[in-house]
Amino acid sequence: MYDSIHLVIKESDLDSPLSFLEEIPCKIDLDKRKCTQYSVFGHIEKMSVMVYGATLSILGSLSTWNKGNNIYGIEFKDIKNAIDSLGKCLGVPLDKAIVKRIDVGQSFKMDFLPHLYYPSLYHLNKFGRSDLKVTSLYFGKKSKKEDGGNLALVFYDKNAQLRKKGDSYPLVQKSLNLLRYEFRIKDTKTYFRRDIRCFELFSADFYRNVIHLWYSMYCDIDKRLEILEELYNPKFNGVNELNDSCVALCIHAFDIEKAIEIASEKGMITPQNKHNVLKRVKKIKEGLVNLNLGPSLIDELSEKIEAEYKRQLEELEKYNDSLPS
């Protein structure tokens, strides 16, 4: 499920002598406006390639490099071949390159438009929450100095992004509701407290660790039901129906019986009124149970993310079992 990666390798890391300034320009499409005597800028396919003296930097989507798009993530079994292919095209073995950044992501076919799921992703401890227009939701740190400041979680409408870029994607219907969830490690050395080398990207242990982070960070988000229609069919034809609808919302939002008990202990409600209110709450609660509600929007998303996590682990085990002993 790797998507964007940032690789950096120095000439001194190579087993055989090689001058990046001499060799790389003939392997890529150059951006001659940016190139100087000591630096090279360009791209190969959709991977950005930069040379600063004796240092080569590569930035782009490994999924796109492997299959032409990043609608769905690259499978573990294809990672090594994709990296080897990139290195071969550049004429540089990349196994010893330092991985500066890793994005892990997957797209999901949802029943509804992606932005309808964002309000339910309510809070992530120590992370700021930003709605980027209507198409994206971003959890990140305001300062890189904060603990976890190099991490970000992004949810966005994949079809909307592709339409904006003008990309063609015949494998996916443009009418699909594609919600993408990405977990971004923007500074791997700070997070893992050591340099991560490129060969670790196709290590089963490292991959297992990264997809677990992708899943566990999602699980850490506080979720809540946000849309009224997710709760039950509300009725507003009169004051009594309005009151019952509001009580039903309170039942889902917090422990209303406990709140009534606390109010009673503080003398804010008489014993008779307490009895009447609890009786009304109980009746409305029983009515909600009898509705036999289907899964909420957030349940749908959570189930799909959990299923993808389990599938990745299963595929990893199958790959390990297929290796010669």
TrEMBL record:
It comes from the Bacteria. Residues 42-188 form the Replication-associated protein G2P N-terminal domain. Pfam families: Phage_CRI. One of its GO terms (biological process) is DNA replication. This is Replication-associated protein G2P N-terminal domain-containing protein. It comes from Parabacteroides distasonis (strain ATCC 8503 / DSM 20701 / CIP 104284 / JCM 5825 / NCTC 11152).
